[in-house]
Design goal:
- The chain is an alpha/beta fold.
- It is about 40% helix and about 15% strand.
- Strands 3-4-5 form a 3-stranded parallel beta sheet, with helices on both faces. A two-stranded parallel sheet has the order 1-2.
- β1, α1 and β2 form a beta-alpha-beta unit.
- It is globular, with a radius of gyration of 18 Å.
């Protein structure tokens, strides 16, 4: 394998990597995994805008890798599941009433990202059914066929991946949210999927 064929896998804080970007020149493909790249989890649904710093952070990423082709992957899940998970976090205050909770749009977030990175391709992954999408998601990140993922990795992914979503599905039986808010969030998610699927240079996948 030549240096130009090497694959760099980076997980964790992105900023130190970008400061020493020359070290990445030996790799033809670079995969960066950072769940909080667009902002902390608390910025998902509790701010006036979903991930308010997302556009600036996406622009920084685009500028940092202006000499490479960017392929961005965004995993989304129903707002109601995300809200349930946040409510179970002691650091998140739900406010005086569920009815006052704004229902943010994933489609609006996707639009801001594509505006910030106009030359990048973007794949949005619908994680409403995590068991259907986690292996295709991993394969796409590594640019390999799903069939090439070995049994040991498949088992590890099945056991370790999507903890937040698994917890949210269990918590929904314990942490009840307002029925009207649940309806609004469910409707928004379905609308988001339709809007995202219609966007140019954006691919929507659920498996």
């Amino acid at each position: 394998m030549t240096a130009s064929d090497k694959l760099g896998l980076l997980q964790g804080a992105v900023e130190p990597v970008l400061r020493n970007k020359k070290a990445l020149d030996a790799f033809k493909h670079i995969v960066i995994s950072e769940h909080a790249l667009l902002g902390p989890v608390s910025d998902m649904l509790t701010k006036k805008t979903m991930f308010p710093k997302a556009k600036r952070r996406a622009q920084n990423l685009d500028n940092a890798f202006s000499d490479r082709q960017l392929h961005l992957h965004l995993a989304i899940a129903p707002q109601a599941e995300c809200w349930t998970y946040l409510l179970a976090d002691d650091d998140i205050s739900p406010g005086p009433s569920d009815r006052a909770v704004p229902v943010h749009s994933w489609a609006d977030l996707v639009s801001r990202i594509t505006t910030a990175c106009p030359r990048a391709t973007l794949t949005v992954w619908d994680f409403e059914q995590p068991h259907q999408v986690r292996l295709p998601f991993l394969a796409a990140l590594l640019d390999i066929d799903v069939e090439l993922i070995d049994p040991q990795t498949r088992k590890a992914v099945s056991q370790e991946a999507c903890h937040h979503l698994k917890s949210a599905k269990l918590l929904s039986k314990i942490v009840q949210i307002d029925e009207e808010l649940q309806t609004r969030m469910d409707a928004q998610y379905e609308l988001d999927l339709i809007r995202i699927d219609a966007m140019s240079k954006v691919t929507l996948r659920n498996g």
